[in-house]
Batch of 4 targets.
Target 1
Amino acid sequence: MKANADVVYKDLDSSAALNEIIYKKIDKLHRYSDSILHSRVTLDTPHKHKHKGKLFRASIELGLKGSPITVSHDDPSVHVAVRDAFAALERKLKESTAKKKASVHQAATQLNH
């Protein structure tokens, strides 16, 4: 089941190319879990730092059966922020899926003994 994906731009202009990248990355996440209900990607420029320059933040909320996973990443490049946020989300999703499989396996093993 493919989930809904919302991409929100705050204080940024929408980008068709960036949207395409985001949707491809969200589709890739479905390989790791079939319990994804929805996803929301928010891109904004939260910082007004004079010394660090302009930073972009990519925040991703992934709604799962059970508990949601949320990650965010800041970078001077919006594309790098998106890439790194999705990499962190993929790691967390793999961990979550592995823990669920391990607990199901452990429960099944205890029932058999």
Note: The mean pLDDT is 85.
Target 2
Amino acid sequence: MYFFESKRIISCLTALLLLSVFSFSALAEHDLPAGRTKETGAAERVVSFPNEPFDFSEADRLFADGVKGINILPAETDYLSLGNKAKGDANGDGRIDTSDALLALRASVGIVSSDISLEYMCDVNEDGYVSSEDALQILKRTIGIINEFNVVDGSSYRVTDPYTNYTYAKLDKEIKAVAVRYHEAISLSSIGTTSGGKNLYLLRLGKGSKKVLYVGTMHGSEHINTAFLMRMAERYAYCYLAQRLFNGRDVYKLLNEYTIYIVPMINPDGADKAINEGISWKANGNGVDLNDNFPTSRWKDLNNGVTAPGRKDYKGPSAASEKETKALIKLCNENRFEFAISFHTKGQVIYWIDSLTKEVLGAKALTQKVVNSTGYKAVGTTTNVNDYAGGFENWFREAYNRPGLCVETTPSNGTTAPHDNAKFDSLIWSKASNVGLDVLS
């Protein structure tokens, strides 16, 4: 029985091996030593990396430099490994079975899936024999986006566009596309709606039991942080599924330990108003500043001198009066987050302690991780009640006695106007692209 099953597995894996060799031999004329480029055909530049691992954080730089494609080629030793595993007991359980075949397949092409079955691996198109066409169908059924794991190009690699302003309509379109493309790593839901009827979207990224929360665009005019969190979600999800490194970080390992909860835009009404009217608008659609609306025990003492709805600093008619505030509180109450980070602009600084909550256990260490990752500066204790009495991260620390940070991601430029998203890379990504992973390690 095991002998017969072994023969079927070896036949199937041989087909897969032949498919891999055939696919990559077609690219041989463009294959280059790692890190080199070459002009091909109509001035199309292709970079080939014949040795693993390839760090996908390099893809942005390569595409920006005009590279049109990146060929991810297994090393020759991977083919030898495939053959050896197909012939033996790969997982050491005393028999040769479909689990061994799955391990061999993963080793050869880097697929992350649990859906491969013996039925898929033999005679998929029912023509009486196992062919490379069967192998191709196996791969398509298994990952759906086969091309992204072997040949990457700029259009297939990117769903998100951080270089233009994130209106709600743009977010609505992109976040659904991200959730579909990376569905094995990301799930999409809504934690509520605004007074204007817009969804407060939530992305869950990863498979780990530990939960952390990242929130963006608490203030409408700070919508560049939605771009930041969307790009973060896509890049990390891509590397997780491909089991590739991101700037040397082991994404697959980290996101099997943690699940990142991302609310990329908690204030879509405010963001739309700031973008569509071209104004510095921090409040939500009701004219309430959400970061003054959270119900700390000192909320009643908050007095910024603003007593009516407007573009900023109005704390609202009551604590947690706003739908956005209520939705975020409910999310936190329903999940035991290890910590929460709210991303704001401007200043490249980190607020992590105030007179109300003092130093929460773990907050200093978490803050230092952000400092080490970004180069931003940690600020001392916030003592003015008007600066902490209604803030989300301040409320989070008091409510759960867990770290809550406010990270100001972009440089100060002497204005309150929104940043130019066309400068996204230099404003934020060049310094902060790793922070979402570094705080987990």
Note: The chain has two domains: 2-156, 162-438.
Target 3
Amino acid sequence: MAGILFAGCSSADALDAERQRELTYLVRQDCGSCHGMTLKGGLGGALLPENLVDLDSEGIASIILDGVSGKPMPPWQGQLSNEEALWIAEHLKKGFPQ
């Protein structure tokens, strides 16, 4: 499903600098409230590159958008676009910016 969901999206689809700053803030604050402010884990697992090595960016983006049933990970669909979720996923895999 992720292949269909993200058809046409890639890291080449640039988000403007302001939106990138907003998404960085969102990840650090909102995601950080469960995954730790440094993304090293907390209520939710660590979101560091070494912890995400077995997941592809599309899979991570799907988790962001759909949440995880039975876990405290909420769905962000409706608040983030497919492109934004993929941008976050790609940056988590590389090491998220400060």
Note: The chain is about 45% helix and 0% strand.
Target 4
Amino acid sequence: MSGKLWETARKRVYFLQRWPSTTSVKRVKQRVKELTPRAACHHDLRETIAKINPVIRGWGGYFATGNASTKFNQVDSYVWMRLRKLMRRAEPQAG
């Protein structure tokens, strides 16, 4: 029950306490990994992001209700890391 609303207006408002399971987070990370293979470093990064966006948005939309910010941050960090690796592989090596 919400504390502040109850104290001021005597309204009972309930919030859903739901977050993605560990299996669900692993599944979306696996899907991102499939969409960002090592060979994708030679593709335009915008195309790769366009492939990943529907997956991330769909997963995030499904778990948007509830308290999932920690899990969202984990997935966001993973996606950022994968894209960063692709960008670094695409850079010509100085040597």
Note: The mean pLDDT is 85.
